[in-house]
Design goal:
The chain has about 1500 residues and is an alpha+beta fold. It has 63 helices and 28 strands. Helices cover about 55% and strands about 10% of the residues.
Length: about 1500
């Protein structure tokens, strides 16, 4: 049997080889780990063998599937038993004739003999390879080679043995035949060395084509979380026997082998030692940018800093380098313990050590000198050795998991094989076997980077659900991505005089199919490697030209480019220039596929891009596109493309605006005293009649098409037609959201959509008959308000039983084809179609809610006794006039009673009643949707379900939010805001027509790029003006620069409305929120131009308004953090975030958590700390610069504001944000900044406030602050600053106000907090008490500052007394005097307050019948109505909830007996619970609702049976 099969033990190959030239026992091979096998006990394989055989069987019925599952379970059980047995036998002595298995350490595979296959070259021998699981061919007897050993003897290290396979009669032997690709055919823990002081890993990497050893700076928040594969080192313990391994002792000698390159760590003489002042070190040590920024008078300090750095460089006598051979004496090191250890003790893992270089007797020492000094942000710090041993130069030995080492080995070996392949491709000499081998490797790489097990599935169909960041990083760091691009480029390069090996056009030829498959695999590897990983995306994008040149040859280049650029604005802006777009257009011209061109046009018009819309819409009219959409002779996908074009080019553009379905801000004068469905329709639709006429035929097509879908035996049976169905439903969704459908039309359309979704289908004739009755005779049913209320309740409840019709001749049933199709097989298009229908239903329920609000308000106004005509008369009436008095006391009980008719519909005797079908259809549709495996659809269906079963609660909640605008001022504000917001929306929508990205405008003046004389104003104004539809609409100014002024004026107006004389106006803020001002301003923020007034306006809308801040969505917070990433680090964005985390003196915990999460996610683009050695001098320099201190938009103010924001996020004891902040800004860094002589008061205020909220005034004990010396260092610094403000001159003109604020507010607060804490030890600082008294006795503190100091003095004095610490007599008497004085002051202040309130009382002398009394009366009485409704609705609300619980208890009752859907309902609860787990992070509110319902289901009560019976739900 021949061992003729594995190149150098590579992980990319399962063959096994013998390489005599690699080394022998006296001179082990460099790749020693490739030769290591572990002796393991014999595993059992009988159950696993049965499972493998059954799995390979091709045809299985259900019984076989069940049997397979049992066999799989037995196989897994056998594997666990094997592992358990192996653990028991660990440490047992191996004897001759024992059966063992050999596990290859590096690949984690078993050496295995396959007696059924011949060896690849020696055909009369059996094949030996490596197998991941092993089998019975992995069993070997160990037999003695010499006769001096016999069976049963212990095997001794050094014995020669024979390995005999148990299932074959031939011993393991080496063949003399050489492999074509292999001519001539240690021990060691892998660790990272982490420098404890510098917090950096020892790394080896290439820079400027040369290998360097250095300490790598990481940009992660936690240095220890950095996981570069280039920082992995294998420890070798030096022995006399080079093949011997073993644990290392403190007196052992060690080598460190770099795992990725195989080179060894060594030291060589520093060429710049000892004259570092003139050599490289002086240049490296100086920061050129820093010299440019430092003012003239500070040059001396700069030179001094440079000199210090040079001296740091001079002490490095030797530099650390990598050498190729381990027998180099320069690669020997000793480990020195940081604690007292015996020399013969073993070195434990994760211990701290110092490294001594043996042959030079020097110690490894770190520096701050960058190697990559030419880079914008240097990360490679030089490391060397010097003669002095320093305590701080210690490394932590961080052990590395075996899986990580294996991943690196695989990536490293793959890179070598791919690099060799690229060279062979360059020479044009790739054999068929080599190509097959590389293809197999590329397939393995896909499974590797996707982190998906290879179970025989189609490799190109592998989907990454959770990207493995470490493996993606390996792909880049180990140059695999570089080799992939080599494979993509090399075959198509021209060889000297020979031409290219391949042409792209040849790939369509069947002869080159293997190469085409290779290229497809390469592109799929690129796609998986970049998923959700910014660094790889940037790396791959550098080769954009290569990928673009290979579009259109069916090798997945376009697929990879799409994935790379999708939602990636940075890459789009950086890599997609005019040149790339021109290439794309040329490709499009070459391959004139009409569907792709239409889709491109639709994408160009997406999101109202008027540069495209204005050009294309003139060529393709509404009628033309409609004819193509309706043409049944065209393919479905082409009709779908026309449908998409209709939407983006004609429908989703001006003057259409999305209807706000629920309006909370209501003008009192516009509320009618009576409302019917027709009045409601005319009231909402009058402004859209012109546009409705334009799209009447389109709307007709949509309805007819959807009816036709309902008529199909199975609505989603045709995959191609599904694409068109999706687009039509999407078009319908937009037409509805733009308000094209009246109430009655909406109801008709909804019934059709529900019919599409309903899996229980009645006869088609019955459905159409009912629909026609609905169209013709619907008015008779819905003539009154009460009928409308009932109709609205039921429009989503049932598809076919809303009218009192006779029982149909044919009973409803599930159509056979509907039952046959299993939900799991439905593709994403079908799921998305259903999702759009859910969105439509959501909208209609919102319209129903708006109608109910209007209905309630009309009843209220009618009861109030006022109509819009006699408001003025009532205002001028005398206060004691009897008619007015009676008119303004509405019958609240009567209003509440009438409100119930919206739900029950019992006002008339002949009210509409539900028949047996009732609400079953709607519920059945929702329950069926919840059974799908598509999370967005599931969430949408659940939200509808909860919305339906909380109708009264919804109305009550909405009614509470209604803002009645009664006074003239309110009405004027409403109209002005509406006009302003319409103008802003249009300005945002058409931003591409007026925003000049290349220039900025200052105070309305044109930039240089605007002074183009060639532009024709007539043409421009035509482009800028919106569609003329006969109504007054806001206009875009044809003079582009004027639009900036228009925006600025509106934003200033909105800001002034919110805040006047520095006081918040909550009513106006609420009005802006109700009218959607914040969302419009958010959209404005997305326009890329340098204006920050929008952020300020947003801040004013939310300032000191707790309710608004508490309602803020995660999207808003994400948006502002994204603005910092894209628009730059502007303080205004941080100030908005500060506004929302604290309002009205209360902390908004929800906002604190959201802001903290998004800031951390933003990473280095947002979080700027100067706490490492390289950046700390920059902070000092900025604090010394007067210009930086006063620059409100500069980096120093940004940093201060950021620290203040982080402190605000932790105020009010928030454990989640406290922990996050601790990791962002450690205590020792804070102390270093605050205690530095150059630290300015503004920075001190921010940092000390941060310490107070993150370490002292916390929810959980932060032990570090109470056990370390840090706080006492701060206290010493406080004393210095307190003395400084006390000793200043009495001249207030030169007083340091910031320093005074610092010592009287943050300092006093943290001192009080620290000593009040139960965690602080029994001590206090009398020096702090004395200093506080000195400040208290100064003349300059204002009342707030004085109060803060007074509070601190009291705290310190009380703590001292409670802890038995003696206070000096004179100080004690001063404290007592202060206590007495403050008590009398408090009494005086209270008396003054009473007197002031008594005086100010009679000032409000307004007649009771005056306007403000009437306005207040209307608004106040509305609150009484709300309270009455709450009381009346309460039992019914709980009853609604109880019905929901019943439905969820037995959802199967909604489906016919024996149907597949009914059977599947058995898994309903498990699916619901699993989905709830996924909701915890993204949709918290829905998650809570589900959990509340589940809890109710566990503890069901019968107290609402009566109310449930009263409800008309079935």
């Amino acid at each position: 049997m021949s061992r003729d099969c594995n190149p150098t033990g590579s992980l990319v190959d399962d063959r096994c080889v013998v390489q005599p030239e690699a080394g022998d026992l006296c001179n082990p091979p460099k790749k020693f780990r490739d030769c290591l096998f572990k002796v393991c006990p014999m595993n059992r394989y009988s159950a696993q063998k049965q499972y493998w055989k059954a799995k390979q069987a091709k045809q299985r019925n259900h019984t076989e599937a069940a049997l397979l599952k049992k066999l799989q379970h037995a196989a897994e059980l056998e594997q666990k038993q094997n592992e358990s047995e192996n653990r028991k036998l660990l440490g047992e002595i191996v004897k001759y004739s024992n059966v063992i298995q050999l596990l290859h350490i590096k690949s984690n595979k078993y050496l295995t003999v396959n007696k059924r296959l011949p060896a690849l070259l020696e055909k009369n021998a059996m094949r030996v390879s490596l197998d991941a699981a092993g089998n019975e061919g992995s069993w070997f007897y160990i037999q003695p080679f010499w006769k001096l050993r016999s069976e049963g003897d212990n095997i001794v290290v050094g014995d020669k043995v024979v390995l005999m396979p148990v299932n074959a009669g031939q011993p393991l032997h080496a063949s003399n035949i050489e492999l074509l690709d292999n001519p001539g055919c240690k021990e060691g823990d892998v660790v990272r060395l982490f420098h404890a002081e510098q917090e950096k890993f020892l790394t080896c990497d290439e820079y400027q084509k040369k290998q360097h050893i250095f300490l790598r700076t990481t940009l992660r928040q936690s240095a220890t979380s950095a996981t570069s594969s280039k920082a992995l080192w294998e420890i070798e313990v030096v022995h006399h026997d080079p093949c011997r391994g073993g644990a290392g002792q403190w007196n052992s000698l060690f080598r460190f082998k770099h795992l990725a390159t195989g080179n060894y760590l060594a030291a060589e003489l520093n060429p710049h030692y000892p004259d570092g002042s003139n050599g490289e070190k002086a240049v490296v040590g100086s920061n050129r940018n820093q010299i440019l920024l430092v003012p003239h008078q500070q040059r001396d300090s700069e030179v001094l800093a440079s000199k210090k750095k040079s001296q740091a460089g001079e002490k490095i006598m030797y530099t650390l380098v990598s050498v190729p051979h381990g027998n180099d004496i320069a690669s020997l090191f000793e480990l020195d313990a940081t604690t007292l250890q015996r020399a013969d003790c073993l070195v434990p893992r994760n211990s701290y050590v110092r490294l001594r270089h043996l042959c030079t007797n020097t110690w490894v020492t770190s520096t701050t000198i960058p190697i990559d000094k030419d880079e914008e942000r240097p990360v490679m710090l030089k490391i060397g050795t010097c003669q002095t041993k320093e305590d701080k130069e210690a490394f932590a030995i961080v052990s590395v998991p075996l899986s990580e080492v294996r991943d690196l080995d695989f990536a490293n070996d793959a890179n070598k094989v791919l690099a060799a392949t690229v060279k062979k491709l360059e020479n044009g000499s790739v054999t068929q076997n080599e190509r097959r081998f590389v293809t197999k490797l590329l397939e393995d790489l896909i499974f590797f980077v996707a982190d998906v097990p290879n179970n025989g599935q189609e490799v190109l169909d592998v989907v990454v659900t959770k990207p493995n960041r470490e493996r993606q990083k390996l792909m880049r760091e180990q140059n695999i991505l570089a080799q992939i691009f080599g494979i993509l480029k090399t075959p198509f390069k021209d060889k000297a005089g020979e031409g290219a090996m391949l042409r792209l056009e040849d790939l369509s030829d069947q002869r080159y199919a293997p190469y085409k498959y290779m290229l497809r695999l390469c592109y799929r590897i690129l796609r998986h490697s970049q998923q959700d990983y910014r660094k790889n995306q940037e790396y791959i994008a550098k080769n954009f030209c290569v990928m673009q040149s290979q579009i259109g040859y069916d090798i997945l280049a376009e697929d990879t480019i799409t994935a790379l650029l999708h939602n990636n604005r940075k890459l789009l802006e950086k890599h997609i220039t005019a040149k790339e777009i021109e290439t794309f257009v040329n490709l499009l011209r070459r391959n004139r596929e009409p569907r792709y061109q239409l889709n491109l046009f639709a994408r160009m018009c997406l999101d109202r891009q008027y540069l495209a819309i204005n050009q294309i819409s003139t060529q393709l009219s509404v009628d033309l596109i409609l004819r193509c959409m309706s043409d049944e002779s065209l393919p479905f996908d082409l009709r779908a493309s026309f449908c998409r074009l209709m939407l983006h080019m004609h429908v989703d553009r001006d003057p259409q605006e999305t209807v706000v379905p629920v309006k909370y801000a209501r003008l009192w004068t516009e509320i009618p005293t009576k409302i019917t469905i027709h009045e409601y329709d005319s009231f909402t639709d009058s402004s859209r009649n012109d546009m409705k006429r334009k799209f009447a035929l389109t709307m007709e097509f949509v309805e007819e098409y959807l009816k036709e879908v309902v008529n199909q035996p199975f609505p989603f049976g045709d995959k191609e037609k599904n694409k068109l169905t999706f687009e039509v439903v999407h078009l319908a969704r937009n037409l509805i959201y733009f308000g094209f459908y009246s109430f009655s039309e909406l109801l008709r359309l909804t019934r059709t959509l529900l019919a599409i979704l309903d899996i229980v289908q009645g006869p088609v004739s019955s459905y159409l008959e009912r629909l026609s009755k609905f169209q013709d005779g619907g008015n008779n049913v819905m003539r009154t308000i009460h009928g409308v209320g009932e109709m609205m309740t039921q429009m989503v409840l049932s598809r076919g039983s809303i009218f009192p019709l006779s029982v149909p001749d044919v009973a409803p049933s599930i159509h056979p084809s509907k039952q046959a199709i299993i939900v799991e097989n439905e593709d994403v298009t079908v799921m998305d179609t259903k999702l759009k229908i859910i969105e439509i239903l959501q909208f209609i329920l919102s319209v129903r809610l708006d109608y109910r609000i209007s209905y309630m308000l009309s009843i209220y106004k009618k009861e109030f006794g006022e109509t819009s005509e006699n408001v003025d008369n009532s205002v001028t009436s005398l206060p004691d006039s009897p008619p007015i008095t009676s008119a303004v006391v509405p019958d609240i009980d009567e209003i509440a009673a009438q409100a119930e008719t919206m739900f029950a519909g019992r006002k008339e005797k002949n009210a509409v009643q539900l028949d047996d079908e009732g609400g079953r259809t709607f519920l059945r549709v929702l329950i069926h949707l919840i059974m799908h495996d598509y999370p967005p659809l599931l969430s949408g269906a659940l939200q509808l379900l909860f919305k339906h079963f909380s109708q009264r609660a919804e109305v009550l909640q909405a009614f509470k939010q209604v803002q009645l605008l009664v006074s003239n001022q309110d009405v004027d504000n409403y109209k002005q805001i509406k006009t302003d917001l319409d103008q802003l929306r249009l300005t945002v929508e058409k931003s591409e027509l007026w925003v000049e990205k290349s220039s900025s405008y200052e105070s309305g003046e044109l930039g240089e790029s605007q002074t183009k004389g060639s532009e024709e104003p007539i043409e421009e104004s035509n482009i800028l003006s919106p569609v003329q539809d006969g109504t007054k609409k806001p206009q875009i100014d044809s003079n582009k620069s004027n639009n900036y002024n228009i925006v600025m004026e509106i934003l200033i107006r909105l800001s002034k409305l919110c805040i006047q004389n520095k006081k918040c106006r909550n009513q106006q803020q609420r009005l802006l929120k109700n009218m959607g001002a914040h969302s419009v301003v958010l959209d404005l923020l997305q326009i890329p131009y340098e204006k920050l007034l929008e952020a300020e306006t947003m801040r004013h809308i939310f300032t000191s308004n707790y309710h608004l801040c508490n309602e803020i969505s995660k999207r808003v917070v994400q948006h502002f953090v994204h603005c910092i990433e894209t628009h730059g680090r502007h303080v205004e964005y941080l100030r908005f975030l500060q506004t929302i985390v604290k309002a009205d003196g209360k902390y908004v915990k929800k906002c604190q958590d959201m802001v903290m999460t998004e800031l951390v996610n933003g990473g280095e683009d947002v979080l700027v700390f100067y706490n490492d050695r390289a950046s700390f001098p920059i902070l000092l320099q900025m604090m010394c610069s007067e210009r930086d201190r006063v620059d409100e938009s500069g980096p120093l103010v940004y940093h201060i504001t950021l620290v203040e924001l982080l402190a605000s996020c932790t105020e009010g004891k928030n454990v989640y944000t406290e922990i996050k902040c601790n990791s962002l800004l450690p205590l020792d860094d804070i102390v270093r900044v605050v205690t530095h002589d150059d630290c300015i008061p503004e920075v001190k205020i921010a940092y000390v406030n941060f310490v107070n909220h993150c370490y002292v005034d916390t929810e959980v004990e932060m032990k570090e602050i109470y056990t370390s010396n840090h706080i006492w260092k701060l206290f010493e610094n406080f004393l210095v600053d307190m003395a400084r403000v006390c000793n200043t001159t009495t001249d207030r003109k030169h007083a340091d106000v910031s320093l005074e604020k610092y010592v009287t507010e943050p300092v006093m607060s943290i001192v009080s907090g620290f000593f009040c804490s139960p965690f602080s030890d029994n001590s206090t600082s009398l020096q702090l008490l004395q200093s506080a008294f000195r400040i208290y006795n100064c003349t300059w503190p204002n009342p707030v500052q004085k109060s803060s100091v007074e509070s601190c003095i009291k705290t310190l004095a009380e703590v001292a007394k409670n802890r038995g610490i003696a206070i000096p007599v004179d100080l004690d008497s001063q404290v007592n005097t202060l206590f007495m004085k403050s008590h009398s002051n408090m009494v005086q202040r209270a008396a003054m307050g009473w007197r002031m309130s008594a005086r100010s009382g009679p000032r409000f002398k307004e007649a009771l019948g005056g306007p403000s009394w009437d306005y207040r009366n209307i608004i106040e009485k509305l609150q009484d109505v709300v309270a009455s409704l709450e009381q009346q609705f309460s039992p019914m609300m709980q009853a609604e909830f109880s019905v929901l619980v019943d439905v969820l208890h037995s959802p199967e009752l909604l489906f016919p007996e024996g149907s597949d859907a009914r059977i599947r309902c058995g898994a309903f609860m498990s699916k619901l619970i699993n989905h709830t787990k996924r909701l915890m992070e993204k949709e918290e509110k829905l998650c809570i609702k589900i959990l509340q319902t589940l809890r109710e289901m566990l503890d069901k009560k019968d107290s609402f049976v009566e109310e449930c019976q009263n409800l008309e739900f079935h």
